Amino acid sequence: MAKFKILPAKKLSGVIPVYGAKNAAIKMIAGSLLLKGETILDNIPDILDIQKIIRILEKLGVSFHRDGHRLKISTQNLRPGDPDPKLVSEIRASVVLVGPLLSRFSSVNLPHPGGCTIGQRPIDRHLQAFRHLGADVDETKGYYHFQMPETIKNRPVKVKFSEISVTATENVLLFGALQERLIEIENAALEPEVIDLIEFLKKAGVEISLNGRRMAIRGRRNLSPVKHRVIPDRIEAGTFAILAAATKSSLKIIGLIPEHLENLLDKFQKMGVQFERGGDFLYIKKSPRLKALDIATAPFPGFPTDLQPPMGVLLTQAAGISRLKENIFSNRLEYLGELQKMGARIKISSSREAKIYGPKELNGDKIESLDLRAGATLLIAGLTAKYGETVINHAENIDRGYEKIEERLQNIGANIQRVQ
Question: Which of 159, 219, 292, 361 has the smallest CB count inside 10 Å?
C-alpha cells in the first residue's frame, strides 16, 4: 500500500497543467469497440482507471499502443466474449462496455461493476434503458445477462430516463452507434464528457442531434476510423483551482476549458476568491479572506458532485457557516470525518448534509483517502495544514484519476512524497 506524506510548505506558485478527461477517455476507449481500423485518441491521461479499462479490452483481443498521451487502438482481433469479472469489479465505468459489446455481438454478461465506495450506484437505469431498447436482461448469481433478439433490431425506440444518468446516457449512445434504426433519448445527461463522446461518434459517421435534453441517434453498421483529442479534465482543473484558493496561493492552471467550470467560478466570486480567466487557463490569485457559502450538487450545468469534496476543504477556510448538500451519491460526505481528525469544525447531520464552521486551522494527521475524489481532497487538506505531517493511506485511490500527482505538486512547491 502506497502512501503520501505531506509537510507544511510555503505558498504554492507556478504553473500546473491539466490532462485529458478521465470520464471522456474511458467512454471513447469503449467506443473503439465499434470501429474497424485504428482509433487514435490524444490527450489520454496515464492513470489507473485507464490502465484497468485497457486490461479488460486486451483480454478480449484489442491491442493498444501508448506514446505519451496518445493512444492507438486496434480492434482487428476483437473476439466475442465477456469482460473479465475481476477487473470489472475494480472499475465502475466498466458498465459502459455493455452498449458497444451488446450492439456488436448481440449478447454480453457482466457482474455488478465495482470501484469507489461513495454510495450505492445501482445500474437500474442502464437495465431499464436496455430493456426499452429491446434487450432481454436478467440477473443470475450476481451477473447481468444481456441478449438482443434479432427480431426487434430495426424497430425505432425511445428511452426516457426518470433521473439523469451520465453513464446510462453514454451506454445508449454507444449501443445506438451501430444501430441503423432511430433511437431517441429523453432527459439525457449533457455533461461536457457526454458531448465529447458525441463528437467522437459523429466523426465515425453516427448521426446524432440534440434538442435540450433530447437526443436522436441513427447509427450505421460500418463506422469509420477516428482520430480525436479528448477534452481537458474539468474535475482535475477544478481540483487545482480549489487547491490554490485553499492554500491562499497564486497558481496558473493551463490546458483547460473555463466554460466547463462556470458553476465553480460563480462560487469563487461569491466566496471572494480572486482569479483571472483566459481562453485555456485560470490564474488563481492569493485571496486572504473567504466568505462562507452553500453548496448543493446537481447534474451539469449544476455544481459537480466530483468537486464537492475539494470544496469541503476550502469551506473550512471560509468565515462563517457553510452548508453542503450532496444530491448525487449517498456516502460522499465520509471524507468530512477525516477533516475532523485534522481539526476541522464540522456538523454532519446526515449522509448527505453537513455544516462547516470556519475559518479553522488544519493540522497534519494520519488519514484515509477512502476514494478517488476524497483522496484528492485530503491532498489539498494536507497542503493547507498549518503544522505537522499529513500521511494519506491508499495513494492508489488518487492514482485512479490524477497522473503523477506528486510530481506535478512538487513542481509548484509542495512538500509531498510517495512512500511504500
Answer: 361
Q: Which three cell numbers stand for residue 6?
A: 505531506
The one-letter code for the residue type at 203 is K
Does CATH number 3.40.309.10 belong to domain 3-19+232-419? no
Look at residue 225 and tell me whether its pLDDT is greater than 70: yes
The answer, yes or no, to whether residue 215 has pLDDT greater than 70, is: yes
pLDDT at 260 > cutoff 60: yes
- Among 53, 116, 315, 398, the one annotated catalytic: 116
Query: For the chain, first and last CA: distance in Å?
Result: 6
**Residue 313 near residue 381 (C-beta atoms within 8 A):** yes
- For 133-152, what is the mean pLDDT? 90
CA dihedral 15, 20, 23, 25 (to 10 degrees): -170
Order across the sheet with 281-284: list the strands.
Answer: 13-17, 250-254, 281-284, 275-277
**Considering the entire predicted model, what is its pTM?**
0.95
CATH number belonging to the domain at 22-229, selected among 3.65.10.10, 3.30.1450.10, 3.10.180.10, 3.30.413.10? 3.65.10.10
- In the chain, domain spans: 3-19+232-419, 22-229
Phi, psi of 140 (to 5 degrees): -140, 120
3-19+232-419 matches 22-229 in fold: yes
Across the range 365-381, mean pLDDT stands at 95
Q: Annotated catalytic, 116?
A: yes
Closest CA to 223 of 77, 109, 98, 75: 75
Q: Which of 17, 89, 11 is nearest to 52 (CA)?
A: 89
Helix axes 234-246, 308-316, angle to 10 degrees: 10
What's the farthest any 2 CA atoms get from each other in the chain? 68
